[in-house]
Design brief:
Layout: H1 5-8, H2 11-29, E1 47-54, H3 56-62, H4 69-76, E2 78-87, H5 96-105, E3 111-119, E4 124-132, E5 138-147, E6 150-158, H6 183-192
Antiparallel strand pairs: 1-2, 2-6, 3-4, 4-5, 5-6
Length: 194
Amino acid sequence: MTIPLKTCAPGPLRAVLLAVALALPAAAQNARIQLQSLEKLGARASEVVDITLEGSALRMAGKFLGNDPETRQLVQGLKGIFVKSYEFDKPDAYAKAEVEAIRTQLQGPGWSRIVAVQEKGDKERTEIYVQGDPAGNPLGLVVLAMEAKALTVVNIVGSIDLEHLSAMEGKLGIPKIHKGKDLKTQGAAHEAKP
């Protein structure tokens, strides 16, 4: 049953309640980052992967993951998986500013970088960011995988069990982060560094 705001609250209070009501969906969605700024890379790329799975499409995709209960349980708590991946014929086909447009969003409230892996100088770098609620429960995750000839951004929105997240590597467009190590191992290694 919905009660009209005008019948339950006077003017100023009604305005505050309306502002809170409008802010709640935005707060729930802020784990989804904006990836449109990367779309112009498609014209320069030799291969483009663009995945948007949310709602019924995500549930349907979950059925193709096989009978692995750990992976199925992980997908059940998700609201969306969004992937933009670009491969280029030549190195340095994207600018640092294009990656910074994503990083700027990850400096917002609740986001923390939990993993940073640097390989082969500045040409290969992987970063993982997690957004949590005030109680510390993960609400979203972003993986930035940057190589000389490739750029991949993965945004997972929803209740995420970080201990089981490595089960998603290599599935639904989520890249393998680091050969021979899973996300949990990498996170522990990152936390152990001073």
